[in-house]
Amino acid sequence: MYGIILAGGSGSRLWPLSRELYPKQLLNLNSDKSLLQSTYERLKNCTEEIVSMTNTKHSSNIKMQLKSLSQNPIVLAEPVSKNTAPAIVLGTKYIMQKTNSDPVIIAVPSDLLIEDEEKFISTVKKGEELAQQGYLVTFGIKPNYPEIGYGYIKTSDKINDGFKVEEFVEKPNAETAKKYLQDKNYFWNSGIFMFKASTLFEETLKHAPEIAKISEKFDFTKSNEIPFIDFDLMPNISIDYAVMEKSDNIALVELESDWKDLGSWQSIYEVSPKDEHGNVFVGHVLDENSKNSFVYSSSKLVATIGLEDTVIVETEDAILACKKDQTQNVKHIYETLKKQNDNTHLVHKTVYRPWGFYTVIAQGQGFMTKIIHVNPGQKLSVQSHNFRSEHWVVLSGTAKVVLEAKELILSPGHSVDIPLKAIHSLQNPYTEDLEIIEVQKGDPLIEEDIIRYEDMYGRV
């Protein structure tokens, strides 16, 4: 059995901690591992190999996190986001072509919390038997309260260790959700699917022929690249809408393990340890007389008094405050910021890269100032910029600077100017952390103004 991890989402409902360029699957929300890393470790226990599907915006961070778990993680980067149907179909085609076989594949989101891995694996084994028989298998969760934020699946007859699926149901209103709770035939849709590779392609050809036809253009025996010119022709559609809701060949297996979709701040609150007043406090929080509230501080002191059923999330450049039962609507704020071209939807002031991280400390018309932290043994790509010059001052550690093929070794207090269009690289081949101040001057000052010539992280 092989695995596909769907790791391309934006996590808009967990704004402001989750951003478009550093989404929730990369965050450590409830442990010392990110949601992506936890998902990868879980699948390693029941699969031969795992393919992580993401997009070009996230691929370097995805690879960086997975390299701590696997020497050569397989990461396929989509040039644009097209939802889960194209991702699953191409991930499946990759596995078929690389293995020259027709294996069973399990496709999972990267943002689920599942702690009972033993029961998860035993459920997967039951699903594997149905997949071998030619079913598209989905995994359902028996509802224990009338949730309106999940899709539902209605089942009918029993088949082996599962049920025949009658229909997929959209997120219901409160009254309908109560009816579903009383009906033993309804399950929450976990977003986890399993199938034989050939079965998925047969059903895709039948119900989503456009995806099947475009997928024929890709040949992963020659390259792991996904060309934009072909992939951009793919429809933007989920696997649920494209195939699962149309097929009459679906089986459901009840998920025996725990399951939580960490898709909102309320869900994070529900799985977090609470104090005697039902509060969850993370970071530097000072509180008096609050109840059943969630307060998250990433950089500043957050003082709260007399809150009830409230969520507050503080980051370096944004603060969210809302009622706990309104956290599903955070995505509306995210979408508004996106329409307004406000960068607080896109990126944090502190941005993580494979070589370390940088923090924007000041910016204005025609200038930007950053603190750049380069980890020991790491180096930035050999690059140039068309629109900006840079001035570097070493704060701590020792910098090796390559500027137009000349090497400079700079100690704290020393500086260097990087002219417009000059080919250069910042490197730290030493055992101590390196920190510099970078002052950029130019217009526009955007991360896309990087022309890479060499890169140890494969971003050329």
Can you describe this structure?
The protein has helices at residues 35-44, 59-66, 84-99, 117-132, 174-182, 197-207, 209-215, 228-231, 239-244, 265-271, 330-339, and strands at 2-6, 50-55, 74-78, 104-109, 112-113, 136-141, 152-159, 162-169, 186-196, 250-254, 260-261, 280-282, 285-288, 294-297, 302-305, 310-314, 319-323, 350-353, 356-364, 367-374, 378-379, 382-384, 388-396, 399-403, 406-410, 415-418, 424-428, 434-442, 451-454. With 460 residues, the protein is an alpha+beta fold. The strands form 7 sheets. A 6-stranded antiparallel sheet has the order 18-19-20-28-23-26. It has a 5-stranded mixed beta barrel with strand order 6-9-7-8-10. A 4-stranded mixed sheet has the order 12-14-16-17, with helices on one face. Helix 2 (59-66) links the parallel strand 2 (50-55) and strand 3. Helix 3 (84-99) crosses helix 6 (197-207) and helix 6 packs across helix 7 (209-215). The longest helix is centred in the first third of the chain and has 16 residues, at 84-99. The chain is globular. 39% of the residues are buried.
Give the helix/strand class.
Answer: alpha+beta
Low-confidence stretches: none
Shape: globular
Q: Major sheet: size, sense and barrel closure?
A: 6 strands, antiparallel
Beta fraction: 25-35%
Helicity range: 10-25%
Using only CA atoms, what is the Rg? 24 Å
Let me know the number of strands.
Answer: 29
Helix count, DSSP H or I runs of 4 or more residues:
11
Mean pLDDT score, rounded? 93
Distance between the termini: 33 Å
Strand order of the largest sheet: 18-19-20-28-23-26
